[in-house]
Amino acid sequence: MNIKDIVNRDLVTLTNCDQEPIHIPGQIQPHGFLIGLTSDWTIDYCTGNISSFIDISHTQALGNKFETVFGGSAHQLIFNYINSDTVQNVFPLEIELLGKKFQVNIHQSDGIYVLEAEPQFDKQILGDVYTQTIEFVTQMNNTKSLKDLCALVAEGTREITGYDRVMIYRFDEQYNGEVYAESCKKDLEPFLGLHYPHTDIPVQARELYIKNQLRLIVDINYQPVPIFTIDDKDYKNLDLSLSILRSTSPIHVQYLKNMGVGATLTISLIHHDRLWGLIACHHYSQKNISPAVRLAAKLQGQFITSQIDIRESNDENINAKKSLEALEHLAAHDLPLAEDSLNAIIRMPELLALCNSAGVSISFRNKIYKNGLTPEDDQIKAFVELAEHKRSAEFYVTRKISDDFPCLESCSNCAGVIYHPLGNSSHIIWYRPETVSEINWAGDPEKSIVKDEKGLHPRNSFNTWKQVVKGQSSIWRQYEVNSAAKYAHSLHHNLMMILLSEEEEKYRLQSEILRETNSELENINWISTHDLQEPLRKIQMITSKLLAEKADTPEDPDFDSLQRVSKSASRMRELLQDILKYTRIKNTREAAEKIDLNLIFESVIEEISEAVSETDAVIECGKLPQVNAIGFLMKQLFLNIIQNSLKYASPDRPPVIKITASQEPVMIKNLFHVYCSWVKFSDNGIGFDQIHADSLFKVFTRLHTQQEYSGSGIGLALCKKIMQTLGGTITAEGKAGQGASITIYFPCDPEDSLI
Q1: What is the per-residue pLDDT across 567-612, written as a single tens digit (0 to 9) for each?
Q2: Architecture of domain 589-747
């Protein structure tokens, strides 16, 4: 049987440390030993230091069944532990292996049960830890802010663990760290308030902190112990992400040595599935702590993470309440719906207070209203133009405007902005000036990697390095962003109401003008349809009398002139009568009712019977439907259409008029209305070219001269107005020299169903 170690010997430098496979080092720290079991309890992995703890070597253990090496009793204890409800990550298994007592942590890794054994610690320590934890919980209830709680946790963790220094390390959005709270021995230089660059903890290390929330280094000068396995597969390895004994990165070890640290304990602080921070414990000599103390220290971290939301909410609650009060005060003002109201709005101090800004501007109709500390108008316009192309959400917020708009870097009045577009080229912007601040770094963050004649090294100088930060404002809190969004929505509504109010006033004035104009037109129409009738009748009476006197002398030149005057007066009276009919249709107030079109047809035929006989016309009519209509309008419509067919009959053949109907639902091309009944009037007259189909229904439109065919040109316009009044429509189809057809469509009865 061949045996090999799985030590990861890939060359790791500071140029590729962010890609270091720290989860598979193939080595452990020497204060315990590791065994890896397959599903059939075969020892497939074993560390080379097992013989330092029990009387067996790794070569003797590998390839054998666990029961064969350690006995049936130990096998049964571990089997029961694995299959019990015990929270394995919390309570290690206390077991005797080959006469020695150990505390064993067990977890699974890619189907392998990983057993990590450490010599059993003194149980007396557990009682002391319990007492200290109870005291801490009592004191925790007296803290109010998150910072106070973190300071208490730092102090409590140092008392429980005995480390020289305990720091609560908090990350920002880019994972730069700040020592947020600290407890240390009096003879040590404090690190409180120092910042550390995100490069100190690479991405893969942060991911491991989330998976395994506790990491221990007992002696920074330890010699890693290799893990051996049976040589039966290529690239065989063991994932130690959840391991307690996992050997750490040599880069990290060198980093700690440069700080003078001898041992460490690190506890992850997870909040909303993100690495919020760390509890970092440093000791300046080698130090190991029992599983019970580790558990108590881990519990300290859970005290923090369980309180983050509550404490941060409490910290912001007072300011958020002030912001809400400002928002309510703004909403309570009943301002007039006029553009001048913006002058009052912009001067309200609550407009600045609702998001704690130093300035605000509102743009409406290319006019900018400003209050407080704001940029110049041309700078505001330039920013808005750029922001409209830059923003991907409904609004834009930043604390460092120069990051997105370098051209505005010199504008110190607007380092931070909240920008809300309000439609119609309007917007509201809140401003904050730059806040110059100093950040104390633990060493120059730009020199986290140092190159010398010996190669690359993690920085070995942690002297305080001050960085002056310019060009950015204080952070916009979420409640401030929310308040700004709520008011922007309210202001957008107000601006829309101002526009609507102005439009309403404009339409009201236009409506008054239109009403006056219509009134004048009605007076003119009354004159044309009533007052003009009387002189026309007199003209016709006089011309008729003169024509009668000259009946015996038709060759008299005055006779022809009198005939033309009489015909003109007759046409004028016909035109006035048609205008009167058109007005009557337009202003009708009668309600539609069920009308039998068969009765309408019979009434019309009786009225024009003489004209039908004179022209030898044949009128064929099928059964017509009942429709919702107005009786006298339907009679007028039938009269106009049939008389039109008789008027435009072909001189080559007797007129034939066919009337057909249907009650099948139909949708006319290019229209989106469904019509439930239609009636078609077809004739064999002179017809027309289809390109004139739409113009037929226009008032005073004629396709023929007055000498060829008499009429006012209003007939079909009357028909169209009638159908529009009823909610229907009318169409025409024709072929020159062959005939024409007029189809009228009636709307669906609301009480009828098409389904």
Answers
A1: 777 767 666 666 665 565 555 556 778 889 999 999 889 888 888 8
A2: 2-Layer Sandwich (3.30)
The Cα–Cα gap between 569 and 563 comes to 10
Q: How many CA atoms lie within 13 A of 337 on its CB side?
A: 14
Instruction: Confirm or reject CATH 3.30.450.270 for domain 333-435+472-502, answering yes or no.
Output: yes
Asked if 297 and 281 touch (Cβ cutoff 8 Å), the reply is: yes
Indicate the angle between helix axes 478-526 and 291-332, nearest 10 degrees: 30
Which band of pLDDT confidence, cut at 50, 70 and 90, is reported for residue 230? very high
Q: Is 357 within 8 Å of 432 (Cβ atoms)?
A: yes
184/151 Cα distance (integer angstroms): 11
pLDDT tens digit sequence for 338-358 = 667 788 888 888 888 888 888
Q: Which helix (H) or strand (E) holds 485?
A: helix 478-526
CA 440 to chain centre: 39
State how far the Cα of 423 lies from the Cα of 364, in Å rounded to an integer. 9
CA separation for the pair 743, 732 (Å, rounded): 6
What pLDDT is attached to residue 402? 78
- At residue 636's C-alpha, the angle toward residues 631 and 637, to 5°, is 95
**Phi, psi (degrees; rounded to nearest 5) at 180:** -85, -30
Span(s) in the chain for CATH 3.30.565.10: 589-747
Q: What is the mean pLDDT of the chain?
A: 81
HSE, side-chain direction, 13 A CA sphere, residue 165: 23
Other CB atoms within 10 A of residue 50 CB: 26
Strand partners, 100: 97
Q: Where in the chain is the domain with CATH 3.30.450.40?
A: 124-224+246-316
Residue 741: partners with Cβ closer than 8 Å, 6 or more residues away:
680, 681, 682, 683, 732, 733, 734
Average pLDDT over residues 701-706: 51
Query: Are the CB atoms for 697 and 720 separated by under 8 Å?
Result: yes
Name the H helices within 101-222. 124-140, 146-161, 203-211
Mean pLDDT of 419-443: 74
Between CA 111 and CA 561 the distance in angstroms is 120
Strand 3-5 versus strand 618-621 pairing type: unpaired
Residue 215: predicted pLDDT? 93
Residue whose structure tokens are 């040590």: 188
Tokens representing 672? 């989106």
Residue 127, pLDDT above cutoff 90: no
Coil, strand, or helix at residue 576? helix
Options 3.40.50.300, 3.20.20.30, 3.30.450.150, 3.30.450.40; CATH of 124-224+246-316: 3.30.450.40
Q: Enter the pTM of the model.
A: 0.52
- Report H helices in 164-290: 203-211, 250-259
CB atoms within 10 A of CB 377: 13
* Amino acid letter for position 148: D
Question: DSSP states of 28-49 as a string?
Answer: E-TTSEEEEE-TT-BEEEEETT
Nearest residue to 627 via CA among 663, 671, 660 = 663
Q: Write down the CATH number for the domain with range 3-119.
A: 3.30.450.20
* Structure confidence at residue 386 (pLDDT): 82
**Percent of the chain surpassing pLDDT 70:** 80
- Which helix H or strand E contains 195, and what residues bound it? strand 195-196
The pLDDT-based confidence of 435 (bands split at 50, 70, 90) is low
The per-residue pLDDT for range 239-291, each reduced to its tens digit, is: 999 999 999 888 888 888 888 899 999 999 998 888 999 999 999 999 999 88
CA triple 496-497-501, angle to 5 deg:
120
- Tens-place pLDDT, residues 513-551: 877 776 666 666 666 566 666 677 778 788 887 777 777
DSSP state of 240: -
